[in-house]
Specification:
The complex is a heterotrimer. Chain B is built from 12 helices and 2 strands, in the order ααααββαααααααα. Chain B is an all-alpha fold. In chain B, strands 1-2 form a two-stranded antiparallel sheet. The chains are: A mainly alpha, B mainly alpha, C alpha/beta.
Chain lengths: ~300, ~300, ~250
């Protein structure tokens, strides 16, 4: 791992440790927990889009699968929460392989719409056949580990951001490794990559599965934090929000996923008095980002620092 | 009426409702094709123009109480202008980058923007206005077919005929077709490609709006119907073969009918899933569609 | 014969690009493919490397039929190539461009990379060393940290060759490696190609328009016109060949 990665992780760890000490407001803590959960989904999508150059408009699908399966396993089958989460992630990974094999043969628009279609099918399934149907269900067990059950906001804050940190370390290792270089090469030129022996389809599938694993893990945390699930959380709207997080934060920046998630998660709060404007603001922000802020916020800040130095 | 007669009338009822929805899907599919053919981009904001048509028509006809034809003209003018703005402000500056991912994102961004505008202006309620003609519904073998349904189907086929004439008989239309087959060659022959691109966005915006205007008296229109219409229109287009006009028509009606029959005979909740499953099946197994060819897919470049 | 192409046919939507093309490349040769533009040369190289498929015909590499093998497998078996329109990994450094060539043979699971296990770290170190060796060999070591897209054309072409060397090829397909190079660079390229053949035993199959280069370094030349082989022989024979002269002069008209 590069030196700046160590430094950024250190700063991150310090910020996370200190935050609940200085901020006690329940509301803000809750929103930051959601930001952490969204960061996970965004992180997976960042690697998929920014490094492997693939698009997915269906992350909400894996987010939902992760949440529902973990919830059902722990609530209806009485499995320990950690075990349910583990199984849920495995199942999501398997489903993502099934989707990836045919889908990743497609390019560009076709892939985008195929993943969109997948996400929508999951939504329909959850709506029709999920426990409680459109109204959802509750009483989902809270997160517990080695007999200890988490119940306070502070605990969930540390839990959710811990997972973000963990996945960030894995992601950094991956990006800095030879596999990360192979991903970059695919993004630059699939043809040239294939001609040096890289099995491009296999790599794309692996990254797709990775993004699904992150999304489903996020879903698990969501389920055991909120303890209530309904299909409307896992709609196309969410997939597009995640997309926005990745674009605004910076497609090629891992920390961009976190920054983008923080911005998008807090945006509705900033717009609280302007409910009728919110989609419009999203649209404007996204369009402007694409037109002018092509690389996202984090690379922009990095560039500014580099110019000063 | 005997049993078979009832069954027939029920079936016909579903069939016509399917044809009605299918007409909209076909029109969206055709619009997608027009833009795709001149730019190799799928305009994921296409569905919003349909919504715009319906809500806009309500605004002029019901809210401002303007006469029918004036409202119609104003609505499609607004749609055309927005299509033009979209092309000028977001597509034209970025298309030179030749980055497919970026273009997909941009059309998504515009669709969110349009949806946001519509929600801001009209809120989340459904809107409708009176059918084009008042009158008794028509009875076909026991199925009750409202006049508006006939309007929808009629308008759709008229539009298809008009477009056919345009693309095959007029110089401009032929220039657009040349553009779709080979952009470089078209440019070398003096065809102003960027004007063709602009025109394709304007035309598809108008077609979308017309579809919305026609369908709203039957299905009502809400601010967020755009996305699912885009998906279904795309399904129709690739079912028939992306880029082929008869493909979109065929795909649209096929999809509409399958959807309606599923909703009627199996379960209405999974109606949308029909389109989605069909979409995935076509994408995974025969992305060229029914009338398309494999080479067309490979040769497509930005 | 390290590479045998038998009766290759290829059409693109009605236009016959290659007809009855049969070429045998002897191991250890520098075998050149020349012909007027549009003769189908790049198509042939694409078919050999696997990114396009022939309509008819067979390709044998080291006596093994490779028609059904996907391009990445052919690369793993030892077929390397460069591209007519330069295709380096622009957003990666010169060093990374070489390193990534070593990835496929030592590929490990994502989990190992994510956990940064010791064997993954050792692997990367070895690859780093081997890549630096290649960079020294092709004289690009000083440029190792520069982004590939910022290199001048000549160095990009050399980099492409270096990247192909990372896969330890026994056959190197070079598609117009001298395009855009000045005379001095072309001479250096010629020396490098000959060095690769002499020092590393790599068979070279190259497409070129620079006749001086071709005549100087080739052991054998095949001439393609309108998708057909019209002549084959050593440089002297080809220079005197009437068909060849006609093909080229006809083009100048």
């Amino acid at each position: 791992m590069a030196k700046r990665d160590y430094i950024s992780l250190l700063i991150f760890a310090l910020l996370i440790l200190c935050f609940p000490v200085f901020v006690q407001d329940n509301y803000i803590l809750t929103v930051t927990i959601f930001a952490a959960i969204n960061s996970l989904v965004a992180l997976g999508l960042t690697i998929l889009m920014g490094y492997a150059g693939q698009i997915s408009l269906g992350q909400a699908g894996f987010y939902g699968i992760g949440a529902y399966i973990s919830a059902i396993l722990s609530l209806n089958f009485g499995l320990p929460v950690v075990f349910s989460m583990f199984l849920s992630v495995i199942v999501s990974a398997l489903i993502s392989i099934l989707l990836a094999i045919p889908a990743l043969r497609l390019k560009g628009h076709y892939l985008a719409v195929a993943t969109l279609g997948f996400g929508e099918i999951i939504y329909v399934i959850l709506n029709e056949w999920g426990p409680g149907g459109p109204s959802g269900f509750g009483d989902i067990p809270q997160f517990s580990f080695l007999g200890y059950t988490m119940s306070t906001l502070t605990e969930y804050f540390y839990l959710s951001w811990f997972f973000v940190g963990l996945c960030m370390i894995f992601s950094m290792n991956l990006i800095n490794s030879m596999a990360g270089k192979a991903l970059k090469s695919i993004h630059d030129s699939e043809t040239a990559s294939v001609c040096i022996g890289i099995n491009v389809s296999k790599l794309k599938i692996k990254v797709f599965v990775l993004s699904a694993i992150f999304a489903s893990l996020a879903g698990c945390i969501y389920a055991h934090f909120v303890t209530f699930l309904s299909p409307s959380t896992f709609s196309l709207h969410y997939s597009i929000l995640v997309l926005m997080m990745v674009i605004i934060g910076g497609m090629r920046s891992l920390w961009g996923a976190v920054v983008g998630a923080l911005i998008i998660t807090f945006l509705p709060e900033a717009l609280r008095g302007f409910k009728e404007y919110d989609i419009l603001v999203y649209g404007i922000v996204l369009t402007l980002s694409l037109l002018f802020l092509r690389n996202g916020i984090v690379p922009l800040i990095e560039d500014l620092f580099r110019k000063k130095a | 009426m005997g049993d078979t007669e009832i069954e027939l009338s029920v079936f016909l009822q579903f069939l016509f409702s399917g044809l009605t929805a299918g007409a909209v899907y076909a029109l969206v599919g055709i619009s997608l094709n027009i833009v795709y053919n001149s730019t190799s981009i799928i305009n994921l904001a296409q569905g919003e123009f349909v919504v715009l048509g319906g809500l806009g028509m309500w605004y002029f006809l019901e809210h401002l109480q303007l006469p029918f034809f004036l409202s119609f003209l104003l609505t499609i003018t607004v749609a055309a202008l927005l299509g033009l703005l979209m092309e000028r402000l977001t597509i034209r500056p970025l298309i030179k980058k030749a980055n497919l991912l970026l273009m997909i994102m941009v059309t998504i961004a515009v669709s969110i923007l349009l949806k946001g505008l519509l929600m801001f202006k009209f809120g989340k309620d459904p809107y409708a206005y009176a059918p084009f003609t008042e009158g008794e519904p028509i009875n076909i073998f026991g199925a009750v077919i409202s006049q508006q349904i006939l309007w929808v189907i009629g308008i759709t086929f008229s539009l298809i005929l008009l477009l056919n004439l345009f693309f095959n008989k007029t110089l401009l239309g032929k220039a657009m077709r040349a553009c779709s087959l080979d952009t470089k060659a078209a440019r070398l022959m003096g065809i102003n490609v960027s004007r063709i691109v602009m025109l394709s966005f304007v035309i598809s915006a108008i077609i979308g709006a017309v579809a919305g205007i026609a369908i709203t008296p039957i299905t009502l229109m809400e601010y967020d119907k755009g996305a699912i219409l885009t998906v279904k229109g795309f399904t129709a287009a690739i079912l028939g073969g992306l880029g082929t006009s008869k493909g979109a028509v065929f795909g649209g009606f096929l999809l509409g009918i399958l959807e309606s029959l599923t909703a009627g005979y199996i379960h209405s909740g999974i109606k949308d899933a029909v389109a989605l499953l069909l979409l995935l099946i076509v994408l995974f197994f025969k992305p060229a569609g029914i009338f398309g060819s494999k080479e067309v897919i490979k040769l497509r470049k930005l | 014969m390290i590479l045998q192409m038998k009766n290759i046919h290829k059409s693109f939507g009605g236009i016959k690009s290659l007809s009855e093309v049969t070429i045998n490349v002897a191991e250890g040769n520098i075998h050149s493919l020349i012909g007027p533009n549009g003769a189908g040369k790049t198509t042939l190289i694409n078919i050999i490397s696997g990114i396009e498929t022939a309509d008819e015909g067979e390709i044998y590499f080291k006596s093994v039929l490779i028609n059904k093998k996907p391009p990445h497998e052919r690369a793993k078996k030892g077929i390397g190539r460069t591209f007519q329109h330069i295709d380096v990994f622009g957003e990666m450094s010169v060093l990374e461009n070489i390193m990534v060539g070593f990835y496929p043979k030592k590929e490990k699971s994502f989990i190992k990379y994510a956990l940064n296990l010791p064997d993954v770290r050792k692997n990367k170190k070895e690859i780093l060393e081997k890549s630096k060796e290649i960079l020294n060999y092709i004289n690009l070591y000083e440029r190792r940290d520069i982004l590939a897209k910022n290199l001048p054309v000549g160095e990009q072409r050399i980099l492409e060759i270096g990247r192909a060397l990372a896969i330890e090829p026994s056959l190197l397909l070079l598609d117009e490696p001298a395009a855009g190079l000045n005379m001095r660079e072309t001479r250096e390229l010629g020396k490098l190609i000959t060095k690769l053949r002499d020092e590393r035993g790599i068979t070279i199959f190259l497409i070129e328009h620079d006749m001086d280069l071709i005549m100087k370094i080739s052991d054998k030349i095949t001439v393609l016109n309108f998708g057909r082989v019209i002549a084959e022989g050593n440089p002297l024979e080809i220079q005197k060949n009437d068909e060849v002269i006609k093909a080229y002069i006809g083009e100048e008209e």
